[in-house]
Write a structure and sequence with these properties.
Layout (H helix, E strand, L loop, with lengths): L3 H21 L3 E6 L7 H16 L3 E6 L2 H10 L6 E2 L2 E2 L3 H24 L4 E5 L6 E5 L11 E6 L2 H8 L3 E5 L1 E3 L5 E3 L2 H12 L3 E6 L4 E2 L8 E2 L1 E3 H9 L7 H13 L4 E6 L5 H7 L6 E4 L6
Parallel strand pairs: 1-2, 1-11, 2-8, 5-8, 11-15, 14-16
Antiparallel strand pairs: 3-4, 6-7, 9-10, 12-13, 15-16
Helix pairs in contact: 3-4, 6-8, 7-8
Length: 293
């Protein structure tokens, strides 16, 4: 039997979580699921348990997932070689077929995990009920093929599922005006969906623990950023490279109706619970402007 001190510690954790459960009950949370948390079995199950717990205490979670590593693996299995331009996958017709197959396979795997812990879930893509409409993404001096840029979001299918007590699990594929199928960057899909549903929180699960002024100096970690402060870091060159589009997406979402946007290290067990239910939180949080005391 556990000693009394251990039992008291567990009680304190629950008491600390109570005001956050009360504050966010009934609020929509979009979780962009990616990185190691999607590929390592224990981490994957931890994330699914976290999302399921959020659902059971009154949150309205939506999962948006990628599957880039799995797509690359299957392209190689079929004798091809993955191609990228500025971090974006070049998606010809054959690659699009593979991507849709793999993403739907990942999607249904996540649905099965959620169902296995007693929460109802439905897997959809952006093609379902016109959720994500796109146009061909244009790049100077490069043709990305079937890579889409989101032009419109119809969140009604998400709202209906959540109203029916179901967790939507979304893979980032959409139609253009001619009903041709396009691959969509999962970060972009998560941002667009979060804005469309007026999410209280948008969370990016990544393989980094947040934003630093100097990546080589852990003491420069930034736990909170306003949109203007993030813009300044971008202008100063502090944020660049592969982080730039993700941070730009965070800022855009925070400026357009999403109350809080978080970058969290998905390699940390139960990182969602640490962020949502503790006084100190974890990761970097973006907000439109400074909170009033």
């Amino acid at each position: 039997m556990e000693n009394l001190d251990e039992i008291k510690k567990k009680a304190e954790v629950l008491i600390e979580a109570l005001p956050y459960i009360q504050k966010f009950s009934g609020k929509t949370v979009v979780v962009k699921y990616g990185g190691s948390a999607m590929t390592e079995p224990k981490l994957k199950r931890d994330v699914i348990k976290d999302v399921s717990l959020l659902k059971l205490v009154g949150f309205r979670p939506i999962i948006v997932h990628g599957g880039g590593k799995a797509i690359s693996t299957w392209i190689k299995k079929t004798g091809g070689e993955p191609k990228f331009v500025n971090g974006l996958r070049v998606t010809d017709e054959e690659t699009m077929e593979i991507a849709e197959m793999v993403l739907n396979r990942v999607n249904k795997g996540l649905v099965a995990l959620i169902e296995s812990v007693g929460v109802r879930a439905v897997g959809i893509s952006g093609k379902d009920a016109g959720l994500l409409k796109v146009k061909k993404k244009k790049m100077r001096n490069a043709d990305l093929g079937y890579v889409g840029e989101i032009t419109d979001v119809d969140p009604s299918i998400l709202t209906n599922l959540m109203d029916d007590d179901i967790v939507p699990v979304v893979c980032p594929i959409g139609y253009d005006e001619n009903y041709d199928t396009y691959n969509i960057n999962a970060d972009d899909a998560a941002c667009a969906i979060a804005k469309a549903v007026g999410a209280e929180k948008l969370v990016f699960l990544t393989d980094i623990d947040g934003v630093y002024k100097d990546i080589n100096d852990k003491s420069t970690f930034i736990s909170r950023l306003t949109c203007d402060e993030a813009d300044k870091l971008i202008d100063e060159g502090v944020i660049g490279g592969g982080m730039l589009p993700k941070i730009a997406g965070c800022v855009d979402a925070a400026r357009n109706g999403v109350n809080r946007v978080h970058i969290l290290d998905g390699r940390v067990p139960h990182v969602l619970l640490l962020e949502f239910f503790t006084d100190h939180g974890i990761g970097t949080m973006f907000m439109k402007e400074k909170e009033k005391k």
